[in-house]
Known about the structure:
Layout: H1 2-14, H2 18-31, H3 39-51, H4 55-68, H5 76-86, H6 90-98, H7 106-117, H8 121-133, H9 142-152, H10 156-168, H11 175-187, H12 191-200, H13 206-218, H14 222-234, H15 241-253, H16 257-269, H17 276-289, H18 292-304, H19 311-323, H20 327-336, H21 342-354, H22 358-370, H23 377-389, H24 393-405, H25 413-425, H26 429-438, H27 444-456, H28 460-472, H29 479-492, H30 495-509, H31 515-527, H32 531-540, H33 547-560, H34 563-575, H35 581-594, H36 597-610, E1 618-623, E2 626-631, H37 640-656, H38 666-670
Antiparallel strand pairs: 1-2
Helix pairs in contact: 1-2, 1-3, 2-3, 3-4, 3-5, 5-6, 5-7, 6-7, 7-8, 7-9, 8-9, 9-10, 9-11, 11-12, 11-13, 12-13, 13-14, 13-15, 14-15, 15-16, 15-17, 16-17, 17-18, 17-19, 18-19, 19-20, 19-21, 20-21, 21-22, 21-23, 22-23, 23-24, 23-25, 24-25, 25-26, 25-27, 26-27, 27-28, 27-29, 28-29, ...
Amino acid sequence: MIYSLVTSIKNLASQGNLFEAFRTFSFLQLSASPTDLIIHPTSYLLLSCTNVNSLLPGKQLHAHIFSLGFEQHRILVPRLVTFYSNFNLLADASFITENSNIFHPLPWNLLIFSYIRNEFWREALFAYNNMVKKGIRPDNFTYPSVLKACGEICDLGFGRKVHKSIENSHHEWSLFVQNALISMYGKCGEVGIARKLFDKLPESDACSWNSMISCYASTGNWDEAFELFERMQLEGIESNILTWNTIAGGCLRTGNFKGALELLSQMNSCEIHLDHVSIIIGLSACSHFGALKLGKEIHGSAIRNGFDSFDNVKTTLITMYSRCKLLRNAYILFQLDESKSVITWNSMISGCTHLDRSEEASFLFREMLLSGVKPSYVTIASILPLCARVANLQHGKEFHTYIIRRKELQNYLVLWNALVDMYARSGKISEAKRVFNSLTKKDEVTFTSLIAGYGAQGEGKTALKLFEEMINLQIQPDHITMVAVLSACSHSGLVFQGQMLFERMQALYNIVPRLEHFSCMVDLYGRAGFVKKAEQMIKRMPYRPSAAMWATLIGACRIHGNTEIGEWAAGKLLEMKPDNSGYYVLIANMYAAAGCWNKLAEVRMSMRDLGVRKTPGCAWVGVGNEFSHFLVGDTSNPHAQEIYLLLDGLNNLMIDAAYVSTVNLGLCEVLED
């Protein structure tokens, strides 16, 4: 009879039929004295209360257990800890564990795991300490949870203590524990120790490899992560979606956008279902090199899998379309988002600024304010460079005022750097210097922006003094700083200083010269009339010259009358078949100046064959809050007649002032179709 009731309770509890299970339990109590016979039925009922989330019946059962004196029973204590942990009543679970006289680690493991599940890392370590103080020996189920807590809060000291405990224990070797150790050391930045542990593993699984790859990824050691991933593939070890995404994300971070997309393609081939992170990586890669068609395909995949409703996917889609110059599609997606966050607004505004659409960016910013969304520092930092590029200083000053009035924005150096850059690019170098001087903290970007500003104004010596000040403050220059300094030397004719900086940049600052540094040197030598040196610089550099570099050399040859090198450079530039009409005008001017009319005709034929048309010159004038655009030969303006009369007057004034143009403007007409 009793055993039949016990079996019935077990079956009813497993089915979640609590009412009948408790009714049967009442019959059992009437039939049996409070002995060990009711321990297992009580355990079944507690487990059922946990599974069906019935808090009140479970608490009543706990009270009954206490009244029977079974609150310390080795079977019921773990059940009670699990029950209270399931409802996140961790104080109750902790009280039961701390006051139990059971020397088995199971209740403590359950409590520590509950803390980990709720991300109470410190509480998990505190529980572990109490467990050890009570003389309870941790087992292979204790260590992984504790090591995870150490890794999450980067408590290397505690982690080392746990590692020592593992080595001193007599437990059987556990791969699960070793993987947790690798992960902990990796998260604490001790990648070398993690790798040693990995290399010593007598056996490994996918988790071991994934953990080690994650270690390298978390510290930015992408070369090692890629190498390990390749080994993993060669050895036929299955990677999970997290590892694939980590490696694809690494390709994205290191600028290997094609590699990121190839990995996503491999994932499809291996029948690994792409998640929303994979979609974001793919869209981001498409954004960086304008792969619109592929971006649309990934967008379609996102829609099919329901990822297009994710906020981070939405913002990445907006960025992708705007970077691919399809601003209309980006704006449609933006408008369809009913709950726009500050990140959504930033993505749309950034898209406009990327395409130099200043009016649209300003309009969106005003709409953002009207909608009640507070702009972040990212919002302002994305708009300020645009104000400089389109010479819209009025908007820039408004943003400057906005930053000053918002105290929460004043600690972001990126904003002050953007202001220095904006004023410097707009030619307001004194304003840029005033903002620069007001800063208590400066970095290489702050100095680079001001150096570039002085360089553009032809104040190369001031730019060099700033560079020296930067070095004296032990602020390490980057490759952009070196471009700014070399360019400043070029604009001021400081050939010796520029040459010395270029020759020493690798030894002194550990910066390997890039193509842009060689371009600066070609410009430096060309402006100063050392055309032969500029030619030698191009010939000995380890990079393929760009079209702009050839154009720089051609311009220098035209000014200084070196037709021989100019023709050589022109031939190289024409081989590249550029679609920039300005390059053809430059070559034509050089041939015209040298009287080479046959070669001038060849340039015109090349333009016709390639379908290159000269872009009309364009200028704009800021009037009030708007810009008025003017094209060469444009008569669409209602005041065109008056404007051209004024221009004729200005031309006469220039002639009277003995101004002589260095550009044969008539040649522009020669190249028109």
